[in-house]
Design goal:
The complex is a heterodimer of chains A (185) and B (456). Chain A is 24% helix and 18% strand. Chain A has 185 residues and is an alpha/beta fold. Chain A has one domain: Alpha-Beta Barrel (Aconitase, domain 4). Classes of the chains: A alpha/beta (185), B alpha/beta (456). The complex binds iron/sulfur cluster (SF4).
């Protein structure tokens, strides 16, 4: 089965840190508690300065986003180690972030939780695309297609099967590294 | 091999590792706190079962420190979640806010923010607590659910921040799969001149390599200049490896390291055996540069990121609304003493807030006397609003009633470590990172000020 997602994109610039993805005041929410997971999602990217990002990522009163793909510049997810950041994006409905580069802990947390696919793009897409442009991300061939132009993304390599499995625990069970049945999430 | 490679090789039972290798390491210490602890515990229970036991009780350290002195009920609840887990798992290292092991924590807002509201076991900020309580040892592996866990690299160990899922995995297995990073070497020569502190060193270096200049890499500090630095100075520097995107920062082990660690582990009865890693003759670096400490000047990282470097003297036109001293990197006793040196006998011109990193810092500032007055009194007489409630406080904004939080657009100079938009509260505010000397001098004038103006 082909694995693609088609959605309007949300475009941010360089250095979007974890406080902009999910501000510290919302970290009292515990992601493993189901209602609090949904709430975390409703605050995704709420820390972006309004002046720079007049179009909100999640509309007032909504709990999820129409933008399943986020396009970013350098160093996306820098700052704290809070796993709440990829979780908030995933809970809001984001499937992938395509950036010039990621901060290490954020990248790792994407993989560990299996919440979102962190794709590196060789082309600086945040200079080319605009919020609202509709794109198709093809996970099988690692491309992003926008209005007929096809951008090749850097393949995810060894972390890909971990995200596909839904995070490190599922992956570790599937590959026999840890014993036992996967719990129901 | 580099210092980081040597620690990782040993922890994974291999004779040799190189950058890019993925290795399973045995974890010596796992630290978590009130913000990520409840989620980590949630992951652990979900994946290993409601009755699962942690892999090794003596290797788990739990430190509530982030959102403590707030009336926010969710924050108070999160401290209670930690307590009941500690109780259930019989964990020996828990620095609780209250003394009653079955009680509930509730902050009493009517007492205000300044007066002490904690029991006898509470310590304050996790990264400053770990060395104080004897949990940092040369040659070991420390993971923490907090990005500034890299501060413990000052003690010649591999220390880095992880998320809840990885931490939950460690709680159950004691192991983690990690990639061996490339190492960048920062070779320090000379000694710090008047008015320049360890904070200026790291702000200078981050400005040099950029806010993502060390992404995925280890930052190794070497050279004669390193040995002239105190352990507090090394902690300030290692703490901010993450502000350049680094995976860890690491220092060689010398007599200062050994004295510090031996004293703390003896005082606290924590594990006392450890094996430092020494510098090899053959090391491969992805970056190697010499820095002359004697050439450095008071440095500031301007809004909106820690790599936005300027000299304090170039910024004297910037008017400020607040000065802040505190946090793991800038709220140690030595930081407050430096701050007090500058403001002693003078009066601050703007709103100035001080939050000691730990309860030990509070005690020491009250005990150290200068000319018959405690440093605590000297700071208060200068107009600094000091709280006894050691914690992270406004370093990361936090709930709106957090002491010192920027609740409206303001310009703040701060001895903390991070200044992305919204970090200290209001997302339109601007934070300038600087040394305790520079924060103090700026508090006196109400503008960003080179502290050498007040020193001779
Ligand atoms: S003091 Fe600041 S940087 Fe340090 S652990 Fe607390 S929030 Fe993080």
């Amino acid at each position: 089965m082909a694995h693609t997602v088609t959605s309007p994109v949300y475009v941010v610039r360089d250095n979007i840190d974890t406080d902009q993805i999910i501000p510290a005041q919302y970290l009292t929410l515990v992601p493993t508690i189901a209602e609090e997971y949904v709430k975390l999602g409703s605050y995704a990217l709420i820390g972006l300065p309004d002046a720079l990002y007049p179009k909100r990522f999640i509309s007032e009163g909504d709990i999820s986003t129409p933008y399943k793909i986020v396009i970013a510049g350098r160093n996306f997810g820098c700052g704290s180690s809070r796993e709440h950041a990829p979780i908030a994006l995933g809970a809001a409905g984001v499937e992938a972030v395509v950036a010039d580069g990621f901060a290490r802990i954020f990248f790792r947390n994407c993989v560990a939780t299996g919440e979102v696919y962190p794709y590196d793009s060789p082309v600086r897409l945040c200079d080319v695309l605009h919020t609202g442009d509709v794109a198709t991300l093809d996970f099988d061939v690692d491309t992003l297609t926008v209005g007929g132009t096809v951008y090749s993304l850097k393949p995810l390599g060894e972390v890909r099967p971990v995200i596909d499995a839904g995070g490190i625990f599922n992956f570790a069970r599937q590959s026999g590294m840890i014993a036992g049945e996967a719990p129901s999430h | 091999m580099t210092l980081t490679e040597k620690v990782l090789a040993r922890a994974s039972g291999k004779a040799h590792v190189q950058p890019g290798d993925n290795v399973w390491v045995n974890v010596d210490v796992l630290m978590t706190h009130d913000v990520c602890g409840p989620g980590t515990i949630g992951v652990f229970k979900r994946e290993f079962g409601q009755h699962a036991k942690v892999w090794d009780q003596s290797k788990v350290v739990i430190i509530p420190d982030h959102y403590i002195f707030t009336a926010d009920s969710m924050s108070n609840r999160n401290v209670d979640i930690l307590r009941s887990f500690v109780h259930e798992q019989k964990l020996p290292y828990f620095y609780d806010v209250i003394d009653d092991p079955t009680g509930e924590w509730k902050f009493d807002a009517s007492k205000g923010q300044l007066e002490r509201q904690y029991g006898s076991n509470y310590t304050g900020v996790c990264h400053t607590t770990l060395p104080w309580k004897g949990h940092t040892r040369p040659g070991e592996i420390l993971f923490g659910t907090d990005s500034h866990t890299c501060m413990a690299g000052a003690f010649n160990q591999f220390a880095t921040g992880i998320g809840n899922t990885d931490a939950g995995f460690i709680l159950g297995t004691g192991k983690l799969l990690i990639k061996v990073p490339e190492t960048m070497r920062f070779f320090l020569e000379g000694a710090l001149p008047l008015g320049v502190m360890a904070k200026d060193v790291i702000l200078h270096v981050i400005g040099e390599i950029g806010f993502d200049g060390a992404t995925y890499r280890a930052m190794q500090w070497e050279g004669p200049g390193v040995y002239s630095l105190s352990m507090d100075d090394r902690m300030t520097i290692a703490n901010m490896a993450i502000e350049a995107g680094g995976k860890n920062g690491i220092f060689p082990c010398d007599q200062k390291t050994l004295d510090y660690v031996n004293e703390r582990v003896a005082e606290n009865g924590t594990k006392s055996e450890f094996e430092p890693v020494e510098i090899d003759a053959a090391q491969v670096f992805s970056y190697d540069k010499v820095f002359d400490l004697s050439k450095l000047e008071p440095t500031v990282a301007c809004h909106p990121d820690p790599g936005n470097r300027k000299l304090a003297k170039e910024l004297e036109h910037i008017h400020l609304d607040r000065a802040y001293i505190g946090s793991c990197t800038g709220g140690k006793t030595s930081d407050f003493l430096a701050f007090a040196e500058v403001v002693r006998g003078k009066t601050v011109k703007i709103d100035t807030v001080g939050v000691p990193a730990t309860t030990k810092v509070v005690r020491e500032l009250k005990e150290i006397l200068w000319g018959g007055q405690s440093v605590w009194q000297i700071l208060q007489s200068a107009g600094v609003q000091l709280t006894e409630n050691a914690s992270c406080a406004a370093c990361l904004g936090g709930p709106v009633d957090t002491f010192g939080r920027l609740n409206k657009p303001m310009k703040c100079i701060s001895a903390t470590n991070r200044n992305f938009p919204g970090r200290m509260g209001n997302k339109e505010s601007e934070v300038f990172l600087a040394s305790p000397y520079t924060v103090a001098a700026s508090a006196l004038t109400g503008r960003i000020t080179d502290p050498r103006t007040f020193m001779s």
